[in-house]
Structures are given as structure tokens and as C-alpha cells.
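COURSE: Structural Biology Practicum
ASSIGNMENT: Worksheet 4, Part C
STUDENT ID: 0417
INSTRUCTIONS: Below are two proteins. For each, the amino acid sequence is given first, followed by its C-alpha cell string. Answer the questions at the end about the second protein only.

PROTEIN I
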Amino acid sequence: MARHNEVTLYGQVSDEPILLRESTMDPKSRIIRALVPVTVIRGIRDFGAKDNRMRLDELTIMSGNEKIMDFIREWKLGDIVSLRGTLVTINHQKHCKCMECGHTQAYKGYSAYVYPIHARLVAQGYTPEQGLTDLRNNAEVSNRITVIGKACGKPKLHRHEKSGTPIASYILDIERKYRVKEDLDSNRHDFPAVKSYGEIAENDAIAIEEGGLVFIDGQLQVRDYTRTFTCENCGAAIQQKDQVTEIIPYSTEYLTGCYSMADVIAMREQAREQEEFAATQEMFGRNIPDGDAGWGDGGEE
């Protein structure tokens, strides 16, 4: 399978770096991981929005590379940075607490990080206002991802409850190009969530089959949502806030194992004709034979 996973970011450091050491008891022990949140901006292009607004997302940068960790540890709140790297997902246990009985239980979750292979300090000490202006001026390179991966299943299509915008969701299997020191050597794949909007979503729902290979050019979105669990101890419902990082495609190319765009266009046209025929039947309150060319004008003389 082709391996491609590249992220380009231009953003503002939104908090001080977190340095994780070998020993939590020894503040001078070796640093094994550095994490830092960076705010980036993404324009709303063609994935369902009707305006030119821009949205801010806070992505977590994580590295175990000694040179990059030494560089990251010098970043300060407000700094402007640029970097190139890959999107990695790491499975781990999360915990939720029952408000009824106080029981804490584990559930399977995952987190997504941008793993840098190159980073650069652009400017220092910007205020949030200065940072926002700079991000707007660099919006085209602030948040960009291109990936090739296999769909883990057929996309699920639904419509936004208010706007009616089509939305397709699926998980992508991306084979890693680089080893991630923080993860097990046996983990050679990343599984980010993909969410497409509008016409792209409708095409995805038709074209993509389980195992189909796709190329996505898009941006990253960080979204909060609420998950519901049942308490193992008392059976009460647990509402747990969680967060997901999703790939938002600007465009999707359907490679092997998918229907082609020509197929998609033909199937959408066929579906449209069927909908129009069904609407006509309902309007006139009777069954109209498929292919009847004479109704409505009295037929042939």
C-alpha cells in the first residue's frame, strides 16, 4: 500500500510545553516526550459552508526526538512556529466517573497528535490579537494535511439536523512512513477519523468501499463531543466529554477498490431520475409505467 501522511502547520503556541521525564520523582531525569498545543486557522472552503469564515483549532504537537524536543522546550506562549510532520493516532485507555455512585471505569479511546519531522521558530512573544492577524495572513499554510489510506468501512452518510448539509464519516487506515518512539514497534498504522461535507460527502458515500484506497487533501479539525456509557456498578448513564481530531477533506481522489468519478456521476444521475419519477407518481396519485411517453398529453392520436 502506498504510504503518504504529511501535515504542514503554521500556528501560535497556546500554552507552555509539557515535558515528560523518565521518572516523575526526579525532575532532572531524561526527557522522553515533549507536548505543546499550537493554535492554527483553517478556512471554510467547499465542504458545506456558505461563507468565508475561518475557524481556529488547537492541535497537540508531540515528539520523542531529542533534537526536536530540545527545540520545543524553548517555545513560549505566543510564539509563532511552522512545522512539517505526520498525523499519528495512539490507542489508550480513558476513564469516566459515575456521578450517581462515584465508580470510575475505563473505556477504549484514542488521541491524535502531529509528530514533527521539521520545526521552525518564526516569531516570538505575539499577543493573541497579533497571532490571529498573522494566522489569517498565512491561512493557506496554517493547517494542511495530505494522506493516502484505506477506508476501514463504508462511509456513514447523514444530514446536519439544522442546515441539512450532507456529512460522511469513516475511519482511514494509514500505513506509517516513520517510526514513532512513543508507540509500540508493532504499531505500523494510524487510524484517524475523516469527516467530509457537502458534495464531497455524497460522493464519498457512493464511491468508497471497505478497503478502498483514497487520497485526501484537507485540513484538521478538533471537535468536542459527549459520549454516553452505562455504569458497570449501578447501571446509571454516564455522560463523558471527549475530543476527536478529524481530517476534513477539501478534495478526495478515489484510487483502487473504489468506484470512479464517472461511476459516481452515473449513479447519482440514476438516483436523481428515480427520485423524480417517484415524486411524479406521488403527485398524480397513481402508478406510472416506467418509460410511458404519452401521459399528460392524451397519448398518441
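PROTEIN II
(use this one for the questions)
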Amino acid sequence: MDTSTKTPAAAAAAAAHLPQVGHPRNAGMELDLDWVAAVQANTSAIERRCATLPGRRTVKKEWQAAWLCRAISLIDLTTLAGDDTEGRVRRLCAKARRPVRADLLAALGMEGLTVAAVCVYHEMVAPAVAALRGTGIPVAAVSTGFPAGLSPFRLRLAEIGESLRAGAQEIDIVISRRHVLTGNWQALYDEMRAFREACGAAHVKAILATGELGTLRNVARASLVCMMAGADFIKTSTGKEAVNATLPVSLTMVRAIRDYHERTGFRVGYKPAGGIAKAKDALVYLSLMKDELGDRWLRPDLFRFGASSLLGDIERQLEHFVTGRYSSAERHPLA
């Protein structure tokens, strides 16, 4: 994120719609158990580093508007409720196409800004694909027995195929947490490899459900094994656990991504999900990614926010930047 002198509109324009530089898809590698066993996580050091993050990089005025526009372009706008309807999904897709009021986007010079993707259950894939046709916004489907991942394995594989046939371009799978908790890394690798193969050309995000893995060392090792098996993204949570995305978990996972990239040359994306609802939180996560992985990881092909309510708060902050006034949250409905 360039911080040279620019107008507010130019700064905002620099925050999104950057040309997407291609990179080789993560091909994975053979499971290296020696590498996995060597992975450790210094919990106290990680927590100390994370405690300093909110105050390390302060972004104000036009630069904050720029970063927030970038955050919008990284959102997987999500609805994963048991009472989802086609109407709700169509409204969500309308918000994905026009995430911020037109007058605010015009003032920022950001006409055409959209979110990165829309994430839904399988039953809502077809309505979402129809609502987004012609926009270039992909549909991501949660799969493989989401959120618990405990359905029969053949059905989990079949679920991926059904969502692909319905038009999903990205698949968010859930791993079997028991493989991590029992240290059965071969089983986790084989499972993830099978999911990757079933996804074909569609990119696969591996949801680790980090709130259920017990330790940061388990998080680091699970991250590494999923990347070895070919995951395009590693993702913190389903959003259904008691504890979802946290800064210590995020730091642990992005450092695993950095180590994997340094050893293999493959870039793997990161997606924090669950509990990120405020614009100020999004700024902290963007700062973390910039500090740990660099600007290349601040584009939609390598970083996503899994969120629903985050967009409303960002829109509210952008209105304050443009008008100088804060509005109430209900003036910025999600859908």
C-alpha cells in the first residue's frame, strides 16, 4: 500500500482493482513428516507480538479510506444460516455487486468496486451463480460435511462434485479435526489430497477449525500438512466454533505460509473467518499480512475475509470519511 502523496480518490483507487499478477497454483508435495515434526509454536512470543499489532501501524484519513476499500475487495460475503432462502441470497449478491452506496463510491473514485466472492451452502449455489452472472464475482461453496466434517467420506467427495456442477468456482472444505488431535498427519494429508483432486480446477480453501485444535502447534502443523497436500488457501474457521479467527492463530498460520513459500516457491492464500465485524479489525489483519507476507498477499487471489457484518461497518466508516458524519448502522443494511 503506497503511502506517497495522493488525493483521497487516487489513494482509494490504489487500494483495489489492481492487476492480478498470476502465480503458479500450489501443486503440493509429498508429505514430509520430519518437517511437520520440527514445527513448533512459541505461544507466549506469538501472543506478545499480537498484543502490539493494533498500535504498530496507524492509518488515518485518505489512507484509511484506501485500506478499507482494499478490504472490501477481499471480502467473501457470506450467508451460512439454516434459514437461508433464494431471496436472501439474491439480496446478498446484489450487495456483493454494489457493496457501498453509489454516491460514496463516486466521491472516492471507486465506481465498480465489488467484493471478492459470495460464500453459501450448496443448496444456494445455483441462485447465487444466476444472480452474479456477468459480474466476474465467483461463488464459493462450503462443502465436505460443513461445519463438522463428519459425514461419510464418499459423500463429502460427492458434495464437492455437486457444488462444482452447480457452478461453484471455489470450494471451502473442512478437515477432520480428529486427525490433528491424534497426530495422524498421513490421514490428514490423504484426506486433503483427495479433496484437492475432487475440486479439479476450482480453488480449494482448507478450513482448519482452529478453535477446536487445542494448541498453536497443532494449528501450525495442520496448516503445513494441508499446504503439502495442495490447498490453495488455508482458512481459520467455519464461523460455527466457539472461538473463530484470532490474531495469534492468524500469525501462526501466515508464518506457516511464509515458511512453505520459502521452501517450495508456491504461494498459498489465507482466509480469517468468523468474528471479524469491525473496520478497525480489518485494518489490523491487513497490517499483519503486509508485515508478515508483503503486499503480494493483499490481493483477492491470496487473501480473503470470511465475513457478513464487516461490510456494513466499513461502509459506515467510508461515509464518515466522505461526509464528516457518522451514520447509524441500520442505514447500511447488508442485504
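ANSWER KEY EXCERPT:
Q1: Residues 32 and 228 are 8 Å apart (CA to CA).
Q2: The two ends are 30 Å apart (CA to CA).
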